[in-house]
Protein 1
Amino acid sequence: MKKELIQDAELVSNYIKGDENSLSILISRHKQRIYSFIYSKVYDRDITEDVFQDTFIKVIRTLKRGKYNEEGKFLPWVMRIAHNLVIDHFRKNSRMPKFDNAGEFSIFSVLSDSSLNAEKSMIKDQVESDVRRIIEELPEDQKQVLMMRMYQDMSFKEISERTGVSINTALGRMRYALINMRKVIDQNNIVLTN
Amino acid sequence: MAKIYSNASQKKNLNLMPKDETISFLLNYSKALSVIDYNKLKFEALLN
């Protein structure tokens, strides 16, 4: 076991010095363990192949950039990269759920839990409070129209009656309110998406 | 029952190995990639 670890370290060091053959030995020595590890998480050959490839691309780039710290732990390091890429894969997929054509039709693919999870509900609260703060920055007349329209769900006719201005003025104030809000969002690079 | 329990739950001969093309791609990628150091900055260049 120890012998193999030392050999790994030597191969890595030779590879960094430019010996491409060392990489070939390292890959063939560990490919089965790494591939099986990825497959045990994703259960899909094509995805495993992709993650395996991305893992070694990362390994190659890190080694060539001289950023690898040799501590005799080549395999655990590669496994950690593979593990992180598997997590990335699942994260990407949870953002873009897709139908699985391979197996039987699954009712869970069309049924979804519409309630927000803890993370999303925190983000939603954050976004809403950011929007409120931006609204507070608006001039009073624009803020008034926007609050009545968006938060009190009033029509422009009702707004014009309540504020004593014409419908066109109320519409104009709403328009400028939105333009000003966009400006503030752009200037401050505020992200208002969940 | 005995028959069910004696069945292997998973196929053993999965042959979990990456494709030859993948390995060959990685080796070629490695050969083609060169990192250029310039004033503490590192640039990557892929030469075909």
Protein 2
Amino acid sequence: MSRPRPEPVQVVKQRRDAALKALVEGVPYIQYLGIAFDRHGDELTATLRFDEKLIGNPLLPAIHGGVTAAFLEVTAIIELSWSILWDEIESGRIDAEKLDPTTLPRMPRTIGFTVDYLRSGLPRDAYARARVNRSGRRYASVHVEAWQDNRDRLMAQATGHFLMPTPDG
Amino acid sequence: MADRKAALARQFIEAIPHSRALGMMLSEIGDGVAEISMPYDARFVGDPKTGVIHGGAVSALMDTCGGAAVMSHPNAPAGTATIDLRIDYMRSATPGQTIRARATCYHITRSVAFVRAVAMDDDEDRPVASATGSFTVEQAPGAKV
């Protein structure tokens, strides 16, 4: 029995990082809010870098509830797009090196999004991870959690339903 | 009193750094109703292929407008924070058009305020999104409850 040699580590990393970069850097609003994504294997963690323009209550001060909602929604959409893209690039159907915002598959569209605010957002970095609970041909359901100092003390959580992109756009 | 409340709410909303960053403009406030518009801005685009504004920016607009409606309510609190917010997106906002949100605080208790909101672009007969939310009611220190 012989099996093909595994790909060199840098080839795997380069392909996956290129795909993630194309996905995230193509969206102006993600850049505007200052959200970055770290990848470990297929797991993504979003970081919202704190900035004064994210403040909603200057007296406390606290991060704007709308920023928290946007951060969660961005994380959910990227996670869902990433899960679709992952199979495409790993199978070789899409060449990750040639991906750019104009050649990327269409993004899923939000149908409904529900945010629970659990703690006020402190003026410092926040993190979020999303989990695709169901991904069908037409619809997907995604849960997402955000925290700041302590992973077990959530700042907010949300569930969203999304309309999946069709191959013809 | 109602006028003073509206003026205070207006002052507070216009001082929010993130609302200013998104270019939000308060067009109406008072008696538990608020209307805020957000001009189109290429920096807030969520889908580069279509130029449609990101849902997150619409959420931020709805959240601000909901909070403003709560603060302008006659029984209203000194301050407020969002407890939960649900948004339904009916269609994509038309690229290039201002998005306008209108929120109503339709019920308020000593501890919770309930809000409905709708977002429109130039085609007012077909809303872009609708929202429902609940907000905290923070009493001013020493207030009789």
Protein 3
Amino acid sequence: MTEVLTAEEAKKDAAYLTALKELIYQLADDDFLISFRGSEWLGLAPHIEEDVAFSSITQNTMGHAFMFYQLLEDLGEGEIDMLAHERHPSVRRNGIYLEKKNGEGNYLEEPYYDWALTVVRNFLYETFKKVKLEAITKSSYKPLANIAGKVLMEQPYHLAHWKIWMKQLLNSTEEARERIEARLNEAWEEFGDVLEYGTQATEIEHFGLIIGEDELKERWINEVSKTIENLPSTPIGKKYGSGREGEHTEDLDQALNTLSEVYMSDKEAIW
Amino acid sequence: MYNYLEYGSSGDSRGVVEDQEKYDQFMARIEAGEKIEADDWMPEDYRQGLIKLISMHGISEIMGALPEKEWTPKAPTLKRKLGIMAKVQDEMGHGQLLLRVAEDLMKPYGKDRGDIIEDMLSGDLKFHNVFHMPTKTWADAGMVGWLVDGAAIISQTNMLDASYGPYQRALQRICQEEVFHAQHGEAIIMALAEGTDYQREILQESLNRWWPSLLMFFGPASAETTGSSKQDIMIKYKIRKSSNEELRQAFLDKYLPRVFSLDLTVPDETVHYDEEKEQWVYQQPDWNEFKQIIKNKGPRSKERLRLREIAYENNRWVRQALAADKVGS
């Protein structure tokens, strides 16, 4: 596959550009939504040390979203904060599992957030992110491959963090193990679309932007099973549809209404 | 961020001296500017005063994360989201640093962090007045960084040479970070001050609302106002240098000119600088209200404590799992 070195070059091939943007939207929106969920946890983590550590991860992850939105800005999609704050749910490309609320209540009142969900979700997601970005380091679009390389310099620490949590909670009390396993079974019903590339899947692979969906999924399962001995035996499902195709839940509406509240309060303003 | 001096009834400040010789040596060390360390002998009222001060400072950092946290997921741009997240994270980090210092002091009593958190939830341990107040707009996120942290820098700088070594070293680091926080807050404020009519409007409204709390921040001028104050003992033991009122004057000196230069006003028509006395004259805040606020009867006291209580109770299973200590490799 020919390498594409700049945004200007990418813009010359309409089909390439469409596939490329699709893939980057997925990367940006995934990181943005999961880091938004992380930001809601601030001050509420199980202990103070974790609050600090989790916040570092969340900041890094939102920083990654920033870099991906920057790539989209370079490709002519509009300004970064508009991309993050203004886009309609139907054009958001994050996996549905990543928009899921942290638990009952909300971060301002009665936040009955579930640490088991957070550990399972972040572990599965960071494992996925690792294999996806590793594949992207060989992408035909060099600016994206370079960003993937940069992100991979800090992302392994995030994954290591959640791996430790998984192991600790699976090997301590009965209650902790049951809570984690229940969330794992739930994830298995919902994680499916995260592993997909949506309507442009064929083109994304064809243009050498990343390896095919099946291979990515296989690598992910392989990585996940290094930490969890007994994975759920059922196939991975897409209970709520595909976020890659713009299908989303009310949880995304709640996320977008919150994260864009101030931004939307005065669109003329520079904040 | 934080702190004024403790009011409240508990704590032993009667100056009962257990061992005159040790006490004299202790005072001589303090007078000579030496630092007292965790394992050194110290008088009971020194230890108890420090536990009160530092655990209150620590939980104020942690409770102080909550008002700003209300605006963190809502911050209007990605850069602001990242900035305020880092800032709130710092506050939690300060809380952790300080609770570790307090825990060491509490060891002889067989108490630890769990006791501090439980004392806070039960209302025995107070947190700073400003963190009982509501936030209503994004401008409050800026105001907390700019003026509340600005006030905190003034009050903490006053203790940078504190006689207790572990606290003094923690403060060095905290103060350095607070300077960034104040700049972060100032950047938000500047954007609002130079912004649209709506932005200026929420900025002025925010300042009006925070003004009395900022005056209260340093605590009452004397014990007569609220019934008790530990200013004197803290000064005697060289924990701090200046009085509450001196700190408040330093705050007004530094920030009122800045407030006015941004074309903002404070909700006090009488405020002015008395050239002769070389001090600011201002309308006293309602100290009765202050007393109520720090008794956890402020506008948001219950809700903020409720958040911490839920986080504490709801994650109990996690702490139990960690304590089970059967961690795999």
